[in-house]
Amino acid sequence: MSALRVVVEADGGSRGNPGPAGYGAVVREAATGEVLLERYAALGVTTNNVAEYSGLIAGLQAAAELNAGRVDVRMDSKLVIEQMSGRWQIKNAGLRPLAAEAAGLVGKFAEVTFDWIPREQNRAADALANRAMDEAAGKRVPDVAAEPALPAVAAEKPRSWAPPSLENATRIILVRHGSTSLTSQGRYSGRGDVPLTDEGEAQAMAAAGRVAGISRDVAAVLSSPLSRCTRTAELIAAEVGGVPVTVMDDLIECDFGAWEARTFAEVQERWPDEMAAWLESTSVAPPGGESFQAVAKRIRGALATVLSAYPGKTVVLVSHVSPIKLILRDALAAGDAFLHRLFLDAAGVSTLDVWPDGNIAVRSVNETAHLR
């Protein structure tokens, strides 16, 4: 088996759903980012999901042509990534043959990974998909190849301005736990099991009232295993009718390692180089701790489990700053800078709706009016 490792960036879209559709795929050398192959084509009239699967298939076929041994697939389609990873069922009969074809191609390689990325990081493949649709419509399109450093700017996929229907949507209510002694001092609080303060209890009760105001028809209250979250979750569960609290280990906070219980200023003074590297890249972990990339991977798995277990229901997730920020970053298709710019208050509430096809609507971020 070849030692060549490649990255496949794939996308697809339709102008209307269904509508005139096309796909694009870019294959890069993993170590350098150099573009090795590009593929794009129009598909006639079909759906976004069919186009996205078609882009994946084209990308895998191109990687096979290069005799790659290992493939890292990156797409902004949560539906395709979750289904190909085996975390979501393929309920649409029309997608099953495409998924089977993609799975057959996966078997040709020694290793294939699937990762969701924000759309802004998938611009090259998106641009090729739009090029395919433009050419099929008879538009003249300049020949612009994807570059590693300056990928082609993608045309935005059409979106309806009409409010999305809540039919079949799973509503996720994200709640950060109430304040602890470390919260009030601005200290890193990761895996240490620090209880709520009296103020934190009051904040959690207020958050419970806000959650009940959003929905009293809550199917589940899921919590990080740490007591500051389980206590917050218990108060919420009591307010919405006594739903039992279920602990999900993957909702736990990032492990801050040697930085635990220290302030930002203390960390910057003692570990200036490590702090700079951590702020620069989500792949970097604090000394003895966990990177945001690792947190994101387990949080995506947890969210996929929730969506599979509670389709069309309302679910409350009680967690910590890092997991909630990462969920919101992915939901908003934002870049990594989002993680250091968003502030989440203790007992703040955020709400999003997720549909079976992977579409997401963020309803609110860090609501705090209930705390005043």
From TrEMBL:
What range(s) does the RNase H type-1 domain occupy? 2-142
Tell me which CDD domains the record gives: HP_PGM_like, RNase_HI_like
Q: Which Gene3D superfamilies does the record match to this protein? A: Phosphoglycerate mutase-like, Ribonuclease H-like superfamily/Ribonuclease H
Annotated residues that bind substrate are located at R228
From the UniProt record, which GO molecular function terms apply? nucleic acid binding; phosphatase activity; RNA-DNA hybrid ribonuclease activity
SMART domains with a match to the protein in the record: PGAM
The record lists the organism as Actinoplanes aureus
Q: State the InterPro entries in the record.
A: His_Pase_superF_clade-1, His_PPase_superfam, PGM_Phosphatase, RNaseH-like_sf, RNaseH/PGlycerate_mutase, RNaseH_domain, RNaseH_sf
Where is the catalytic site?
H177, E253
Report the domain of life of the source organism.
Answer: Bacteria
Q: Which GO terms describe its cellular component?
A: cytoplasm
Q: Which SUPFAM superfamilies match?
A: Phosphoglycerate mutase-like, Ribonuclease H-like
Could you tell me what this protein is called? Bifunctional RNase H/acid phosphatase
Question: What broad taxonomic lineage does this protein's source fall under?
Answer: Bacteria, Bacillati, Actinomycetota, Actinomycetes, Micromonosporales
| A family per Pfam | His_Phos_1
